[in-house]
Specification:
This protein is an alpha/beta fold. The chain has one domain (10-169, 234-380): TIM Barrel. The protein has 16 helices and ten strands. The strands form two sheets. It has an eight-stranded parallel sheet with strand order 3-10-9-8-7-6-5-4. A hairpin with a 2-residue loop joins strand 1 (66-68) and strand 2. Helix 1 (10-20) runs antiparallel to helix 16, helix 5 (92-103) packs parallel to helix 16 and helix 15 (316-324) packs across helix 16 (334-366). The N and C termini lie far apart (43 Å).
Length: 381
């Protein structure tokens, strides 16, 4: 039995990933901002929701398939954008995209991925979304968006909760930056994982093609931030987003919405969906947990556009709870990331299998035979 086949939960895959990665690299993927209270609360919010199952229903067969943003999905789930995956598993972005295509769900490529827009489209054809960070270099940003359009990506995801980088103290303590380097502060941690370190030394660390050749940043900003956010534009606003909406010919998803007051202007400028997200607790510490924010955003959207959710998904029952509270689907970041970090494409497939199996089981135990039957009547209180 392989390492990933022996894992029966997302937490098992997390432990497997931790066992093979140097601590600074694991902390980069695992950590949150400052005291990590929002990171923890994303998970705690799901634990606070209790299910109220219906009984005596014929649940011998359960159909998890649905429509996400006008296209079919085998279950109400998409892969969230995750950056720098290749530092945890070489070729990890392609592995995640292939696992998503095989599972019949959308995959979102991050601006800070270690694979190019064209590489993913060529090696992992499926339902592809491209996530664009708002770079200060607008010429680069526009070129990336145009390339995604040319490569037939069906949706553009604009992340709006990163005007500046969050204070990620694990990275600061570990002396971790981009490009990732081994220095005096983290030498022993890398030496403790010789297989990973030898691979990086012999084959060189991967690069982030979409960010290569970026102009040097203001050194005064660098001191305030950790790995992320150094080249992003804090002046980006609704008017600037409206101009991007005019440039992009297909579906637009706005990710990073937690305040219901932001929903109406996003609908007016032409957003096709919003994602309730706090960047996995990696930006503003003390921000609201995404599941707690979901109800207000769903109410503000009033059925006019779909509302997706990410942050804290670790179980199929978490997906069920999000659906019951009004989400059209979820995006998984760390849950599927743990899989690829533990075992590449096989690990990502294992993560998706676990989530699908748990979601189906939860539906059966709660009396739902299809996604459309999951609703607030199956929650307690």
């Amino acid at each position: 039995m392989s390492r990933v086949d022996a894992c029966h939960s997302i937490d098992g895959l997390r432990r497997a990933a931790r066992s093979r990665l140097p601590r600074p690299i694991y902390d980069f993927f695992e950590g949150g901002a400052e005291d990590e209270t929002t990171l923890a609360d994303n998970r705690a919010a799901f634990a606070r929701v209790r299910l109220s199952p219906r009984v005596l229903r014929n649940v011998a067969s359960v159909d998890l398939s649905t429509q996400l943003l006008g296209g079919p999905a085998s279950m109400p789930l998409a892969i969230a954008p995750t950056g720098a995956v290749g530092f945890g598993w070489r070729g990890g972005d392609v592995a995640l995209a292939r696992a998503a295509a095989q599972a019949g769900i959308p995959y979102t490529l991050s601006t800070s991925a270690t694979a190019s827009i064209e590489e993913i489209a060529d090696q992992a054809p499926g339902r592809l979304w491209f996530q664009a960070y708002i770079l200060q270099d607008k010429e680069r940003l526009h070129a990336l968006i145009d390339r995604a359009a040319s490569a037939a990506y069906e949706a553009l995801v604009i992340t709006v909760d990163l005007p500046v980088g969050g204070k990620r103290e694990r990275d600061l303590r570990n002396g971790l930056g981009l490009p990732m380097k081994i220095g005096p502060r983290n030498f022993l941690a890398f030496a403790a994982r010789p297989a990973w370190s030898l691979d990086m030394a012999l084959r060189r660390p991967p690069v982030m093609p979409s960010l290569q050749g970026m102009r040097k940043i203001d050194p005064n900003r660098k001191a305030m931030e950790s790995v992320a956010g150094r080249n992003y534009d804090p002046a980006f606003d609704f008017e600037a987003l409206a101009r991007l909406r005019e440039r992009w010919p297909r579906r637009l998803i706005v990710k990073g919405v937690v305040n219901p007051r932001d929903v109406e202007p996003l609908i007016r400028l032409g957003a096709d969906a919003v994602v309730v997200s706090n960047h996995g607790g990696r930006q503003l510490d003390g921000g609201v947990a995404t599941l707690d924010a979901l109800d207000g955003v769903v109410e503000a959207a009033a059925g006019r556009i779909p509302v997706l959710l990410d942050g804290g998904i670790r179980r199929g029952s978490d997906v069920f709870k999000a659906l019951a509270l009004g989400a059209a689907g979820v995006l998984t970041g760390r849950a599927t990331l743990y899989g690829v970090l533990a075992g590449g494409q096989a690990g990502a497939q294992r993560a998706l299998h676990i989530l699908r199996d748990e979601l189906q089981r939860t539906c059966q135990l709660c009396g739902a035979t299809r996604v459309s039957e999951v609703g607030p009547d199956m929650l307690h209180g």
